[in-house]
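RETRY 2/3 - previous attempt timed out on the joint model. Re-submitting the same 1279-residue input unchanged.
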Amino acid sequence: MIEELRSIQHQFGYLPADQLQKLASRIRVPLSQIHAVASFYPHFHLTPPAQAEVRVCSDMSCHLRGAIDLKRGLERAFQAGGPEKVAVRNVSCLGRCDQAPAMSINDQIFCAVDEQRALTLVRDVLSGRELRSEKYDHRRSPVASDPYKGAPQYSVVRQFVENPDWAGVIATLKAAGLRGMGGAGFPTGSKWEIVRNAAGKDKYIVCNADESEPGTIKDRFIMENVPYLLIEGMIIAGLVTGARRGILYIRHEYEQPKEILQEEIDRCYRDGLLGANILGSALAFDLEIFVSPGGYICGEESALLEAIEGKRAEPRNKPPFPGTNGLWNQPTAINNVETFTFATVILARGADWFKAQGTNGATGMKFVGISGDVNRPGIYEVPMGTKYSQLIYEYAGGIVGDRSLLGYAPSGPSSGYLPASMADLPLDWNAVAAAGSMVGSGAIVVCAEGRCMLDMALNAVRFYRNESCGKCVPCRVGSQKLVEMLTGWTEGRASAGDLPLLDELTHALKLTSICGLGQVVPVPIQSVLKHFREVVDEHINHRRCSAGVCFPSRGTA
Amino acid sequence: MSSWPTAEIKLTIDGQPISVPSGTTIFDAARVNGIPIPTLCHQQNENPVGVCRVCVVDVGQRVYAASCIRQVEQGMTVKTATDPVQAARNILVELLMSDHPAPCARQQQSGDCELERLANAAGIKEPRFLRRATPRGKDDSSAVIAVDHDSCILCDRCIRGCDDIRNNWVLARRGKGYQAGIAFDNNLPMSESSCVSCGECMVSCPTGALTNKRVVGTQLGEGDVLDPAELLQLPIFQNVSGTFLELNQKAVVKRHYKAGEIVCREGEFGSTAFYILEGKAEVFLDSPIAHVRTEGSSRGFFSKLQSLLAPREGDRRSEESDRPFIPIDASVDLPYDSPIAELNPGDMFGEMTCMSYYPRSATVRAKTDCVMLEMLRNVLDILQRNKSFRAQLERNYRARALDSHLRSVPVFASLTQDFIDHLRDRVELVRFNPGQVICRQGDLADSFYLVRIGFVKVSEQRPGGELVLAYLARGGYFGEIALLSGSPRSATCTALDHVEVVRISGEDFQLMLDRFPDVRQKLEAIARERIEENLRHTVQAQNVPVDQFLAQGLMEAQSLLVLDLEKCTRCDQCVRACADAHEGVSRLVREGLRFDKYLVATSCRQCRDPLCMVGCPVGSIRRRNTLEVIIEDWCIGCGLCATNCPYGNINLHPFPAELDDPARPGHKIAGVRVKATSCDLCHDHAEPSCVYACPHDAAHRVNPPEFFAGLLAQPAPSKVRS
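RETRY 2/3 succeeded.
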């Protein structure tokens, strides 16, 4: 159904009601169900779009790099033309945190734009000029852990075809201590074992390449530079678990990685690495790409499965888990891009090699994205155990303008913010968890001295509010009420009862939400209350923002 | 007993050791052991979805579990009511209450809003969260169910009721996050959606988001009130929710009629429809089919009583139609020559009276002893939307009415039986709600339509505003011009009230044109005439100073009788001349609106929007191609057109008639009946008599745009041309 909707939108520019009606009778799906899906995904328009649909990313890294002013500038410039000419809206993280601020015009993404360039681009669209899409440099960056040094050999698959020792594969992954790199950190070997042992005639391998959390850009880098490691990881997962079909679920904003992956998949089919008889054996595995219709919630594994099934991407109640009841209710192994990639690396180089990569007592490797107030934002492949201070000052070149560090998020909004005093924490699952945060997906967002941490917390909570699917009450209503409360704090409308109420709300969100999104909604503000209490106090009690960010009537505050 | 092997699961709930079969949910395990867990989204007859989270319990894991959907596990320890669990639940209720209008419709009606009950129990009075800033809106379009999105808590109970229980698939969620809501079909108003009014959603709703609308009008006085169980026995009520019928119990009654008893009488106003369960009934027109002609003295009140009826041959009106059938508000049409037909079990009549409160179109009399259901609008709406009833309705229509319906259209007179048989299974009955556009001027044409129920407004957008070409009643047809010419739709057709049309696909229409060349010829001639006429009006309308006349309603008119008050001596010659021309009854009153030095006398203005046509139960009032109003001879004298005319220009003329004696059935007594007449512009004279008769050259019949344009010395068209 998603594909059908996409093709209607491609033809008409939006989804006209009569076309939905026709689709309903053609594919024999009730109109209500089609509308339910069409109205859920931000990628679909139910009304004719403006001539220029302008979207400015407003989340963490772009927020730090002037997204608000960029959006205001665009609104000012094109207000007079009317909404049918130019529609300027916010959009959730576009996955270009290393090149902030990012924006899109009619679904084409532009990075590191300033107001002048943005205005020119929009005017170009209005005058009917075709926009040239921005592609990155095609040269691939070398990846240190790549066992093939840029020349894919698929030796892990070849070896498995010769000697299909699935138990050995699982044992190696377990020995290497490989954990899910998407954020939750579930041991990968165990996950594959569950699927291997689950009863079901059609099993599936699904790759979650929907990274949409603000600051998370590492999967994009992996897909562009070592696509073959990811694909090999999926094939081997299929062979080990007995799944014959793989689906690579990629966010629609990743046009270029998608093309690169498709090229690699086509090559694999040509070389007999995918298809009915892999390398002439009786083993079979098919792999296809599914382009997401959009929304952070699709990164939640069960919501992602719902999206593939052509439904609203609403997380399922768990248990049962996807390992036994996944796609089309069949056993499904869902892993993140980085997890599949490291699975290949480990199987090619051995568990011992992987474990030896860590430092400061940690084991393994990790790709991290560093963005925000740093000199060299980007994606770095680092040994586990590296100190965050090292990541910020050595890898990412230190803080912009030689300012001092105020705080950082180890993994986007869901990890909350840690203060500068905790910058020497090692990139280690246990150590960061002990500090009340998490390594997560390694989306490090850095805030320099002079930022308002309450404003940053509000920005993060607002992201969750925008991306809530609305299925369960705590997240749907709670995230909105929390945004309203925090907005009140930044605008001089704090109530005496707010802080205890915030704690009660946090309790309910964490314990009763269906999925991780709802559970982490209060994390950003709770982390700021814990580590930057004085910032909250000055806002609530004195209606003052030292950073000069909050309160519209700043002069009188 | 099921042979499914079920293992016994042992667990502890609130310290109580419990043993239940595997597969049981925690919610059910607790319930059967006397431990109630509160919930909003869960009810026993629906699959659990776990979205409200109010039923969460502590199972000793990182997060709480929704007990309605989580199954018991061996050795599980469940705590359903610890302080932290209660605190979390209360916050959820408080969150919902902050967006809930309390008391909501349900709380007001029956005091059983489940959310407000939970809030009261938890002592939540004024929620501490900010209230929703922008309301989510109401949908009042359905005749039987009120929708208040503001009261909705998105528990999905209505959705599961509609989709899983009734398999109707009309309801679903729409939007995402805080903007999410419920939607009918493509987010349509409920009445425009494919909703079948089964009532399941309303019965499922825990709050005031979906509530029963109170019965319209009064409850029915006579007849036996039916038990919902009894109604559900009838196939036409299949799949309607029993609770829903209970709520509407007094809106439908069973009535018994003895043979010969009158069920309803033509011309009477009513608000009910009838469905025949047993027996046969006759439907017929009681009024004689004739025009009113008044003879004798041209003076005084008594002249009116001398009005006589003239048969069509004796008083032929120009453009009078030759339709062989008279459309009535029942499942059959009446033959013009002998206006009587039989109704059988399974037939329905009075739908239009019931839905739109029009007068009864015909008299119905029990032929044998009869049992009928008499119902008010909300029950009729339920029926009309019910799939099994609709199927029956369509079957009946195809079998009995399609023939006469098609043959009523003069240009289709030559259609052969085999072609009508071909159409029989291919036509489609489609419903429209008041205000809904059926086809739009400028759109591409793909169908031809016959009107089965209700009134369709046919209008054109012209400079100077919308011009209503016609109100089509049952038996009317539209959509042929565009199909014929292959051009876009020339007019917009809008449902004026509850409309049901018979759709004939463009494909079948073309087939008909190919097979019947004379049909094509006739249609082409009509289309040409229509186009020429349109052109004429367009030219006239282009130089009109619109605003000045609008206030007086004069722009509505296509033709006016104006008296130049500077010349007029109030001699009333015009009034007399009118009476002379119309057998003693003047259709002209020398009173009316004044504009400048002119008096606009009261006579038919041939309005742009001829309101008089709306509601005629037998479709006997219509427009000629010149836009003048004509009243056909099968008028039943109900008087609705006279009431509808805003200018008082339609008069009811009494004539002597033999009537049934209410005291002695079967006997007749002398009485007076009425028929409507309007100014006919003296169709058989060269000039209207009133104009002809004026000795002072003060009376003029004028076309308002032309006349007033000259009067106001608007920029002459010549300037435009230069």
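Chain B has 22 helices and 39 strands. Closing ticket.
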